[in-house]
UniProtKB/TrEMBL annotation:
<feature type="domain" description="YchJ-like middle NTF2-like">
    <location>
        <begin position="27"/>
        <end position="133"/>
    </location>
</feature>
<dbReference type="InterPro" id="IPR004027">
    <property type="entry name" value="SEC_C_motif"/>
</dbReference>
<dbReference type="InterPro" id="IPR048469">
    <property type="entry name" value="YchJ-like_M"/>
</dbReference>
<dbReference type="InterPro" id="IPR032710">
    <property type="entry name" value="NTF2-like_dom_sf"/>
</dbReference>
<dbReference type="Pfam" id="PF02810">
    <property type="entry name" value="SEC-C"/>
</dbReference>
<protein>
    <submittedName>
        <fullName>Zinc chelation protein SecC</fullName>
    </submittedName>
</protein>
<dbReference type="Pfam" id="PF17775">
    <property type="entry name" value="YchJ_M-like"/>
</dbReference>
Amino acid sequence: MRCFCCSSKPFQACCEPFIKGDKTPVTAEQLMRSRFSAYATAQYAYILDTYTQEKQQGLSVDDLAQSAQGAKWFALQVHYAQSEESAEPNTSATLHSDTVEFTAFYFEDKKMYQLHETSNFRVENGAWRYHDGTLHDDCGKVKYGRNLPCVCGSNKKFKQCCANKSH
């Protein structure tokens, strides 16, 4: 089965090892893709664990599950990932951060929506973590032609691919 994050890899060789804890993402993009796959498979404990410690405060697995209730995540498009590395003043420590812009597609009540975000990731205790993000103005309900190429990149028409996931 192709990975939920719309990479060309099978789920078992892409995001599943991260979600199961068998591997750790080595880039912010890998973390972002695995978080999307975790939303698609309702693995809310993984999502909570991949927030920065600061952002985990006041969140719970139940909160995440409730906020995602009714949404069926089905496709992801990564627009870009940008890394930054800088030395912290008066130390030899290097801070790592990364920005990933993406659009995630989901169905809710058989209608198609998109979430377009530029996310900020940080390395915390040696692992990438999601910190926060900025939503773009084009978030919300989307009208998409059934005969257009599917948003997941499968090279099939939307009606023959992900449109079937709205049920």
